[in-house]
Design brief:
Blueprint (H helix, E strand, L loop, with lengths): L8 E3 L2 E3 L3 E3 L14 H11 L5 E8 L16 H17 L3 E7 L27 E2 L12 E2 L2 H21 L3 E6 L4 H6 L14 H18 L6 E6 L10 H13 L4 E5 L17 H11 L3 E4 L5 H9 L5 E4 L1 H5 L3 H8 L28
Bound molecules: flavin mononucleotide (FMN).
């Protein structure tokens, strides 16, 4: 029987050839938001990996929306121009459709890159005061500025401008980053949102900013192109954002034309108690899928083809995203296809690497 993993999925007018997604992964290799040569290799490799969708890393919507000084951005035409060669390469040679994640890092911003330990960079040493829902710092980091009405308006406008740039670049799908303790999540979570205005307090109020961002982006993102969101489905702390809140939020997002939700988790506060095991975020995504009817993307320690296939064929998710597994083995989809007995796309330059081509008869077509 044909596998679910290698079955196509349509999101609006975008036809994904299979259900394997390369999860967005920041490379900390950009300067002033402009991607570097590293990205040509990184994105190029992943675009020929056989995944149906490659989501380009979290791209900051303004300079102070970055986590580190070396994050990718899409706030300027220079940022878009820097990304264009990699996008062109992926379009010309890749089999994957191209997504991009729009991002505001919120209160976590102004830290060194991952391999330098994400240490806070003070304002007088080239850092910045990050923006947050409330002026409560992520422990050990710079104190954020609580966005006022004008700050909220301009953060929304920045998402809109970046979405327009992504469209002009030819990006097929956009994902709003609403997870991992970044700005939208700062507003959603009672652990980080202590506001007393219409953006704080009740669940309704805490959801307002995220919904306004989503709606504004949906309004400018072409009707034919899908728009999704990544959520931390739970904060993993008592008194934090819970999966029931995520379900309420997803109902609202659905009404605004959201096409899928990626079910991630955590990131709001360091006290979180994560219980990590293979597919540990799948159950929350499954609940969201069942209770809202939303198309969902599972992510988090999905590493085995049969595990991915089980998640999809048992109706726990519609798509599976792999992060670290794809860095470790960028040909994961090729191997999964062999394991599941599927015919599969290879760039023609690499066709002879297929296991059926190793017997020595190099002139025989692979399949
Ligand atoms: C190097 C690296 C960079 C990441 N950057 C992002 C990012 O830009 N946006 C995001 O939503 N998640 C990011 N993540 C999280 C991954 O997308 C993914 O959700 C997480 O690694 C769990 O999936 P995995 O077990 O398949 O790696 C990153 C993870 C890694 C390892």
């Amino acid at each position: 029987m044909a596998s679910k993993l290698f079955s196509p999925l349509a999101l609006r007018d975008l036809k994904l050839p299979n259900r394997i997604v390369v999860s967005p992964m920041g490379q900390y290799s950009a300067n002033d938001g402009c991607v570097s040569e590293w990205h040509l290799m990184h994105l190029g490799t992943l675009s020929v990996s056989g995944a149906g969708l490659l989501i380009i890393e979290a791209s900051a919507v303004n300079p102070s929306a970055r986590l580190s000084p070396h994050d990718c951005g899409l706030w300027s035409d220079a940022n878009a121009a820097a990304l264009e060669p990699a996008v062109q390469f992926c379009r010309k040679f890749g089999g994957a459709k191209l997504g991009l994640q729009l991002w505001h890092a919120g209160r976590k911003g102004s830290v060194t890159v991952a391999w330098e330990g994400q240490k806070p960079i003070p304002v007088d040493k080239g850092g910045w005061a990050p923006a947050g829902a409330s002026a409560i710092p992520y422990p050990g980091r710079n104190t954020p500025i609580a966005l006022d009405a004008e700050g909220i308006r301009s953060a929304i406008a920045d998402h809109v401008d970046a979405a327009k740039r992504a469209d002009a670049l030819g990006i097929d799908l956009l994902e709003v980053h609403g997870a991992h303790g970044y700005l939208i999540h700062n507003f959603l979570s009672p652990t980080t949102n202590k506001r007393t205005d219409e953006y704080g307090g009740s669940l309704e109020n805490r959801m307002r900013f995220g919904l306004e961002v989503f709606k504004a982006v949906r309004d400018v993102w072409p009707e034919r192109k899908p728009l999704g969101i990544r959520l931390s489905t739970t904060d993993w702390v008592d008194g934090g954002w819970e999966v029931e809140d995520s379900i309420a939020f997803v109902h609202k997002l659905k009404a605004l034309g959201c096409d899928y939700v990626t079910a991630s988790s955590g990131g709001s506060v360091p006290e979180q108690r994560l219980n990590v095991y293979p597919g540990y975020q799948v159950p929350n995504g499954e609940r969201i899928r069942q209770e809202t009817g939303m198309c969902t993307m599972a992510v988090g320690l999905i590493t085995e083809p049969r595990q991915a296939e089980d998640i999809l064929s048992s109706g726990k998710a519609d798509l599976v995203a792999l992060g670290r597994g794809m860095l470790y083995n960028p040909r994961w989809p090729w191997h999964a296809a062999v394991e599941l007995g599927e015919e599969f796309y290879y760039p023609k330059q690499y066709e002879r690497s297929h296991p059926t081509m190793r017997a020595g008869d190099f002139l025989k077509p692979a399949r």
